[in-house]
Amino acid sequence: MRSYRRVLGIPGLRNVFVAHAVSMLGTIAAQVALSILIFERTGSPLLSALVLACSFLPYALGGILLSSVADRFPARRVLVVCDVLSAVCIGLMLIPGLPVGALLGLLLATGVIAPIFAGARAASLAHLLPVELFPVGRSLLRAISQLTVLTGFALGAAAVAAVGAPWLLAVDVLTFLVSALLIGLGTPYSPAGERSRSTVRDSWTGLRHLFTHPRLRPLILLTWVTPAFSSVPDGLAVAYSAQTGAAPAAAGALFTGYAAGTVLGELVVARFTPSTRRRLVVPLLLATQVPAIAFLATPSVPVAAVLLAVAGSGFAFNQAIDPMILDAADPAYRGRLFTVQTSGLMAIQGVSIALAGVVGTLIRPSLTIALGGVLGTAVVLGIARQALTTVRPHPVPTVL
User: Fold this and answer.
1) Cβ atoms of 86 and 137 closer than 8 Å
2) How far apart are CA 300 and CA 144, in angstroms?
3) Contacts from 103-108 at CB under 8 Å and sequence distance 24+?
4) What's the pTM?
5) Most distant CA pair in the chain: distance in Å?
6) Dihedral angle at the C-alpha atoms of 382, 388, 391, 397, nearest 10 degrees?
7) Which residues have a Cβ under 8 Å from the Cβ of 226 and sit 6 or more positions away?
């Protein structure tokens, strides 16, 4: 917690984290509201489920074509504009009688904007934080994200029942505007990088830099592939609960266990020194994958929730990987790098969840989860070996 207090004590950064919590809480609640709204209009489970798909898939588009926006303009301006555009998109959803296709299209637009926002925010953290506190700042963002996931889905369903979906969407508009004000009025200025005339060309240049860089490529792949395999239980949570004989609603315990474990892992590992985090990379990576193998025994839902909490705690490995990425990256490419990292992370999790659903219809959910754990362990360790052997050793300052 002391490291978190040091991060929050830096002028302007408290506003960044409060804005993140406010806007994300509103976004998650709005996703719940939109899912319910579309289901009420159409009665179609498929169209309602597309809300989740439309929340994941556009990240790839934003990361590929528009990642350079995070480098071409001052970070504060990018963050404020992204918040305002997102508020406009959600606000348009409030138009009475808007077709379902238009609602999903507006949601897709917010998904394109989201990775640009995340990339600019990470680049601004790299600019404003001392190098030894950068992984702690990113850790705090992840912890806030998981806490808002825990509260947002629960509060979203209750709020829709209490006030209705349109009012909840209106609240989401307000959260984006509050976030824009917090960032625009209370955060320090960070300069823009060099730019050419073409945003898309600059974005492609950033992608080439990322995927041809011998040190960056395996590090980024590690941050993508690890959650790709460990998200398999998320995609099969409801089916697995049914397999154990529990009610489908019991799947909520699995989601809660995973998120709670992630928050706990971030809080604990943030207290360690950078050198200790480096030594824990492989054990933490194993923690993200190995618990899934135990699903071969079809544990009860409470035991499964504990296993997923252990898996979630392993994601604190990012606290060691983030400074390696920062050290390897050219500062001129940081915005693009973090935008691509975020977009790839979301896209690959969406694909993984979809594939898990397909495989889970062919074989038992428990077996699918266990196979994901076996494959994930092998693949993640292989990439980790390459990533960690290509990292240049250098002195690491101690965080007190």
Assistant:
1) no
2) 29
3) 103/34, 103/37, 103/38, 104/38, 104/47, 104/50, 104/51, 104/54, 107/34, 107/51, 107/54, 107/55, 108/54, 108/57, 108/58
4) 0.74
5) 60
6) 160
7) 285, 288, 289, 315, 317, 376, 380
Tell me the two tokens of residue 234. Answer: 């998320």
Specify whether the CB–CB gap between 285 and 381 falls below 8 A.
yes
From CA 123, how far away is CA 103, in angstroms rounded?
Answer: 31
Please state at what angle helix 13-42 crosses helix 45-56, rounded to 10 degrees: 160
In the block, which residue shows the tokens 């969840």?
353
Query: CA-to-CA distance for 348 and 344, rounded, in angstroms?
Result: 6
DSSP class of residue 264 equals H
Task: Please tell me the predicted confidence (pLDDT) of residue 396.
Answer: 43
- Please answer whether residues 28 and 152 qualify as being in contact, where contact means their C-beta atoms are separated by less than 8 angstroms: yes
Which pair of structure tokens corresponds to residue 157?
A: 């369903």
Amino acid 241 reads S
- Over residues 246-253, the mean pLDDT reads 71
The tokens for 226 are 């690890």
Percentages helix, strand, coil for the chain (3-state, rounded to 5) are: 85, 0, 15
Task: Compute how many other C-beta atoms are within 10 angstroms of the C-beta atom of residue 296.
Answer: 15
Q: List pLDDT tens digits, range 314-356.
A: 999 998 998 888 888 777 777 777 777 777 777 787 778 778 8
Dist. CA 308–CA 297, nearest whole Å: 14
Q: What domains sit in the chain, N to C, each tagged with a CATH number?
A: 1-136+148-190 (1.20.1250.20), 199-393 (1.20.1250)
